[in-house]
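Project standup — Tuesday

K.O.: blocked on the structure for the chain from last sprint. Re-posting the sequence here as requested.
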Amino acid sequence: MKVLILAGGYGTRLYPVVKDIPKALLEVCGKTLIDHVLEKFIKVEGIDEVCVVTNDKFASQIESWASQKTVLPFPVRVINDGTKSPHERLGAVGDILFVLDKEKEPVDWLVAGSDNLFDAGVEAFVRSAQSRGGYASVGAYDIRDTAAASIYGVLEFADDGRILSLEEKPKAPRTSLISMCLYYFPKEMQAMIRQYVTETNATDTTGGFLQWLYKKNIVYGFKFNGKWYDIGSLEAYDHAQRDYRD
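H.V.: unblocked you, prediction finished:
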């Protein structure tokens, strides 16, 4: 099993804070966002490698960060997707497919956004996802505000954890349970990522892929507790700086 941390974006909504540094290297409570994410996987058994996919603009900075990660139970490898500007960006699904196409042997992948800040552990999520067989699993969080959920992917679960519905940025959300940027994609279903891109020509958001996937295949959800922040704007970053410390 490998981990893929998505750090290929250009953080345009956080300009000018991240104009010259990647969003992944912004700090919250004295620790970079990507370190908060990376540390979640230290106690997970069976991880052979952590890969970080980034763009050509920020590759040298991410590589410098990765070169310091020498005391971990797994190696950290940086993959440059070759893009140099927001106009060229591959998108989250595009970056996932870029990495999968480079791998010689199929393996199970845990995928996480580098700006996905939360305080719960991931061990239970991984165990649950692995117990589901060859089906994808997605992390979910209840923000307890139905109106605020309208800017996210909104989920509904069955009693057994199967996703019954997933709406991307609905005008009238039916729940306050939203999709986190945390996924388990076992090798048995990874061909469907290519099928999605072929059918839709869409490579931007993982939410779009999951909305397509659950209608064609079983997808399971796993609800996280604790705190969670999507660092997608300066306001969200400032809020996380204040609240996560508390």
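K.O.: great, moving the ticket to review. The first strand starts at residue 2 and ends at 7. The radius of gyration is 17 Å.
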